[in-house]
Amino acid sequence: MKLKQLESVLGDLEQFSNPKVELEQYPTGPHIASRMLYTAENSFGDVSNKVVADFGCGCGTLGAAATLLGADQVIAIDIDSDSLELASENAADLELDIDFVQCDIRNLEWRGHVDTVVMNPPFGTRKKGVDMDFLSMALKVASQAVYSLHKTSTREVSRSV
Fold first, then answer.
1. Model confidence pLDDT, tens digit, residues 101-116
2. Burial 1-16 (b: 16+ CB within 10 A, else e)
3. InterPro entries under this entry (predicted)?
4. CA-to-CA distance for 87 and 33, rounded, in angstroms?
């Protein structure tokens, strides 16, 4: 799939109508999501024929992108049942096969194989350090690569994890 086509498809996904501030819910826009996953696939081969987990999946944009780019399996994980319902509806609208799991990432006890983790975690403005909790768990779960979006103010901390 070409980059512009991927961005267009992702742009049609439903977004949060009432984001939950306490969970720091904000959608990953189609522009950045398409480029993030397209680069992961076309520069590094980390999506197609891989098992990809989308941590804190929200409305499912990153997981949908991974599926559209040929992931063997996508596992979308979120603590919020409303987010999972929206992500599931988005996947169904595109006829995408994505597995959804309700779980707090900080308590995840994953035993399955995951090649790549993609995520746009909470930035930690409401719960300090939650972004690093997501990153630490992603590094434990992923066998090959982690792609994560963070505030620039946490760049040095992210490098030390």
1. 999 988 888 888 999 9
2. eeeeebbebbeebebe
3. DNA_methylase_N6_adenine_CS, rRNA_MeTrfase/Polyamine_Synth, SAM-dependent_MTases_sf, Small_mtfrase_dom
4. 15
Mind listing the pLDDT tens digit for each residue in 53-81? Answer: 999 999 999 999 999 999 999 999 999 99
User: Under a CB-based contact definition with an 8 Å cutoff, are residues 46 and 40 in contact?
Assistant: yes
Residue-range definition of the domain harbouring residue 74: 3-160
16 vs 13, more confident: 13
CB neighbour list of residue 14: distance below 8 Å, 6 or more residues apart: 59, 86, 89, 90, 93
Residue 78 parent element (H or E): strand 73-78
Structural domain count of the chain? 1
- CATH number of the structural domain spanning residue 33: 3.40.50.150
What is the pTM assigned to this prediction? Answer: 0.89
Please say whether the beta carbons of 57 and 87 come within 8 A.
Answer: yes
